[in-house]
Amino acid sequence: MEYMNVSLPWMPDHYAMIPKLVEKQLKTEKEAALRYDTKTPRYLHIASNKTNRWGHQRSYRLQVYSFAGDHLPESETEEKAMSWARYKVAVTKHKDVEQTSSNLYNQNNIWTPAVDFSKYIEDNESIEDEDLVAWVTTGFLHIPHAEDIPNTVTVGNGGGVLLRPHNYFDEDPSIHSADSVYFEPGSEDSCEHNRMACLTRDTCSPNLEPFSYHGFDGVMNFND
Length: 224
Known about the structure:
Layout: E1 2-8, E2 11-20, E3 33-35, E4 45-51, E5 57-64, E6 87-93, H1 119-122, E7 132-136, E8 161-166
Antiparallel strand pairs: 1-2, 3-6, 4-5, 5-8, 6-7
């Protein structure tokens, strides 16, 4: 979002600053590595060259609604073991050798970690027309307080990211969902209302004998 100084239609001699949505394409891995201490775009899309019926690029919106706290200074040698935390979001080209952002064995040698996530970005490959991976860092800080007794309240303590379709469909896909189904008492075994009740009639379904469990009878003997 950027502000533009425009003339007011009803008062051409007067100007006002109004917000405008500006689109910018990130073409390389370094451009798409959004650091924790920088401003994140309000709308972050992973878009396709294909369009919907309205002519808009079919895309998914990556919406991060919680962020981790301050990162360890990069001047510290052990920071390499957690270099993934430098970024709120990082989008890289998919590679089979880049499976995880960290490794269990990083804790054994934090100064020379088995996986240094920053290396994924240093080669600065193009992410245009490629299979992509979005690495998202989310989190929150919880300081224990009296109201945590006896249970910690979960409301307001959540964190995460949403992957939402944005212009991916031509319209809201939920309008094509089936209507709701009402079950009356006694209709649970009716094939007309509940298709799962008819599984036993399916010719492909195995006809199994009723199962019963008798514990360890005949297997183990316990003597007083």
